[in-house]
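Appendix B. Extra example for self-study. Work through it before the problem class; the solution is given directly after the inputs so you can check yourself.
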Amino acid sequence: MKKNDRGKVFNHKNINKFRELGLLGFIIILSIFIQMRNPNYLTLENINDLIKNTAILSILAIGMMMVIITRGIDLSVAATLALSGMITAMTVRSYPSLHPLLTILLGTIIGLFCGAIIGFLVSKMSILPIIATLGMMNIYRGLTYWISGGKWISSYQMSTGFKRIATGSILGINNLIFIAIVLYIVAYYFVNHTRTGRQIYAVGSNPDSAKVSGIKIDKILFLVYSIMGVLAGLSGVLWVSKFASAQSNTATGYELTVIAACIVGGVNIAGGSGKISGIILGSLLLGVLKNALPLIKVSPFWQDAIQGGIILLAVVVSALVKRSVDRNNLIRREV
Amino acid sequence: MENTDLTAEKNFDLKSFFFQWEWVLVLILIIVNFINTYLSPYYLNTYTLLDATMTFLDKAFIVLPMTFVIIFGDIDISVGSTVALSSVVMAVAYNLGMPMSLAIIICLLVGTVCGMINGLLIVKFKELSAVIVTLSTMTLYRGIAYTILEDQAAGGFPEWFTFPGWGYVKGIPFILIVFTIFAIIFALLLHRTTFGRQVYAIGNNAVASRYSGVQVNKIKFIVFTLAGFMSAIAALFLTSRMGSTRPNVALGYELDVIAMVVLGGVSTSGGKGRIIGTILSIFIVGYLRYGLGLINVPAQVILIIIGLLLIFAVMVPNLEKYFKRKKTKKAF
Amino acid sequence: MQKVFAGLICLVLVVSMVLGIGSSVNAAGKYAVIFKSAGNPFGEKLMEGFKDAIEEVGGEAILRAPAQPTAEEQIQMIEQLIAQRVDAIAISANDYDALEPALKKAMSRGIKVVSLDSAVNPQSRHVHVNQADPELIGRVEVQAIYEMIGGEGQIAILSATSQASNQNLWIEWMKKELEKPKYDKVELVKVAYGDDLRDKSVAETEALLKSYPNLKGIIAPTTVGIAAAAKVLTDKGLKGKVQLTGLGLPSEMAEYIKSGVCQWMYLWNPIDLGYLGGYAAHALVTGEITGEPGDTFVAGKLGEKEVIQAGEGTEIMLGAPFKFDASNIDEWKDVY
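Solution. Structure tokens for the complete assembly:
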């Protein structure tokens, strides 16, 4: 009896691990294949580029994961990113001497503000997240066009310090990557080891019982959308600094990429589950595809089809892996 | 303030709420038309009003099956790509020398097959939600369209093919007539058949409805197939309006369509909503855009107005709830 | 529920009042211009030029641009302009063919149609205002990169979307220029598409550099692409090793032209282009020209312009592409 119990616990852990292992294995096989086609793939330079280009996506994925865990969705992230990037860039244009850290702070505050509005609409006004964020997406995007007056902020209008945010490095690691790593560590601690973090999962997996057990659902919802806003605002600054240009149509449609990274990473759209390690892998898979498809000399016209096919394959494979593990467990239990 | 929608919805009288919700939509529609008339001297004549429908009804065909999908609590974001793929295949088939009628049938077939693939994947892999499946096929379908046409456009359709998108029957746009027919069919299907009741049942509780004998898989499959088929219908009208096609047509249609459905009072958490609501919201959004266009409001301002409409339309009924709750709380 | 209704009515009324929309005054003719998408500095300047021209002739200018660069949205706008009974529409098209039914409908209602910047097919316009000869644009860019890389080596093209008609036409001419024996030692290895998105253009540029380690030069005939490529070359310290030219906005490229990452590039003046478009539309409406080859009209400060035959259609040429280099970039970077 005792033995049996232990087996169960062990297997239960395994299931979750297996899903990620499946994804990891998939990425490795894909990488081997790409490496055979182009030996420049697994070079230090390319891996650095790959991770650097994936950093912003992965930062946004943290916030999106929390939102999806509470059974929500945030379609406004790209618009928030553009708005924060544009306002920050315009500020930098007017005050070139502004310290880079202050610009990051400014973008983050703008993002917090955007996110808090959505959090208010969702938690206090009981508006469905998809409607609230779809509406605010239009509004934030429209505002970005409006305040910029159709102009772009270009490289020469930005201070060197501001551009260094994305190109500089700390301890030999590019700032973007460094920021992403720090955020991941914080997020890992937050969702797994703090009371509030665990409450996010509770709200998502069973709102009724979460409420009964005294969790303030309103506060949790408000919190996750605010966090999402903060991360989107921060990403806006990083984005503008990285590309040294702010446009009003920055990152149009990027919200779907962020959601894709989460979903591929195993975050359940029905809420309640999702892991930090999963979204790292999810972002990584999308990053690998974006980096590698131009590298293996396929026709550019095939890139979309291949990308769609691989994402579909990845999710089907990980579903199958999980299914076979589940089935094995059932058999074992019956025995 | 601990009373959130999650529990509030259960005590809510569904019927009376939706009765009211559709009246709100009717009211918004009247206001939109009133303002448009006030602002633009060109707006209020039957000719303009009918002509305007041509500019927004192509998407509306997808709104109908999307209502079903969202009543399930699912979502289909591959519709825009399905439009592109079926349109591209039709054009290529015609340019390969097939008669136009056959090309049209192929277009409808491609759309249907796209929908079937979605449905099949969703039904066979229960671990995968509809979002994840259609998110992948969204990239895939458009990707296939790119591999077929690459950087080319295809067109040169026969003269009569401009009729679906631009033609009139007795002064009424053809597209409006076809849409009305489809709208009636979908309304009957949802509100007057067992099939429709089962759609609601699945949306309310998929597991319970399976135990009570609803063939969840079959119904889901049919609905996603319908979404594909209607996307192909939309593709026909869109292609007719453009006279040629490219792999990048109908970009971003999915979000427009979903916005119209949710504005129509269909809840994304499933089980609620009526066709009449979504039809009203098609005309609200369509006429609002058209009217703002007539007075040359910049695109960015239109974006903001549509966003505000979406949020306020949903927030205003909730506002009353919100204040009531505050009051009761104070009373304690 | 009454409160709700009342609230809604107030809300919508307030919104419309805040926007300050009044009914428009009819002036001596209404001229509309539709650009590809909103929020594009090139387009803003083009529309500004159009407006200047229309105001000079005493007409009313309507400036429109869809939120997304799609033909679908432009069709809607054309319909709205038809309903407003404008006298002429000038359009920078998102699709060469797809606007044909809409523009034909406009023409059948007596509206004059001018395409500018990005053309529509000859059946759906009266005349096209061409910023510069596409043949010249294609050839001059190849000549530029030839000079920069010292006459031999691998080159690549970083374009906008694979559907962009302007870019595709220019690339065709680039390829024709490359067929000349002079370019025997120049090899075009790839045409990549950055879709006019920053992130994709950067990823594509990086991939070009890695897939073709001996790459000597990149031609990017699109404003987003060239700026993204310049940024990558700057960050990777490849100045002087990989050359870059193409078509770019002076403001976006100012820094890179001064640093030498991109020695020179080309573009035309969008203000003049819009201005010429405005005068061409006006000349069509007054009947000064009909869009037939040989017609001439005076385009304000630009002087006399002639309609010429080009392919199956007719066009009016603005001039040669303008060359931006370190010596003149400072004058232009604040303009557009």
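Self-check: Residues 1-11 of chain B have pLDDT under 50 and may be disordered. If your reasoning did not lead you there, revisit section 3.
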